[in-house]
Amino acid sequence: MIIRPLLPPCWLPVRRATTAFFEQRLVDRSLLGLSVAVRTLRLAWLAVPVGESRRGGFFTVSCSCFALAVRDALAELDGFPNVRLREATAPAREHLVEWGGPSPMLDPSCDAAVVNEFFGFRPLADRSWPAARCGH
């Protein structure tokens, strides 16, 4: 597993596409400079810290051993308060490493605008982009 701050130019080919997801959505794009790239297997994904307009985030991990390692690594970094692990509830589900406040996504009746606000996303984030696979 690699966790390192992002440094331009992109240090992994996938980083640009992952960064573009957040560039399109974040109210405070300066958080991208504080983000870390996390690689548990082949691909690296971003973990974006909390900030003034961002109250929390998450990172999905398929294996509990990797989930524990990601949780422990993020817990040592500034911008990732209250790092915790929510284990998968079924074999085909992924584990969630979460940080910040409790996610409104836990409430099935939650409005998309509330979720966008929690993650520090602009209200009119481009809906043509697919949802993030590994983290918010």
Topology:
Elements (H helix, E strand, L loop, with lengths): L1 E4 L7 H13 L10 E4 L4 E4 L8 E6 L2 H12 L8 E3 L8 E6 L11 H7 L18
Antiparallel strand pairs: 1-2, 2-3, 4-6, 5-6
Radius of gyration, taken over Cα atoms and rounded to an integer in Å: 14 Å
- Specify the structural class: alpha+beta
Number of helices in the DSSP assignment: 3
- Cα-to-Cα separation, first versus last residue: 19 Å
What is the succession of H and E elements?
EHEEEHEEH
Please identify the oligomeric state. Answer: single chain
Describe this structure in words.
- This protein is an alpha+beta fold and 136 residues long.
- It contains three helices and six strands; from the N terminus they run E-H-E-E-E-H-E-E-H.
- It has helices spanning 13-25, 64-75, 112-118; strands at residues 2-5, 36-39, 44-47, 56-61, 84-86, 95-100.
- The strands form two sheets. The chain has a three-stranded antiparallel sheet with strand order 1-2-3, with helices on both faces.
- A hairpin with an 8-residue loop joins strand 5 (84-86) and strand 6 (95-100).
- The longest helix has 13 residues, at 13-25.
- 32% of the residues are buried.
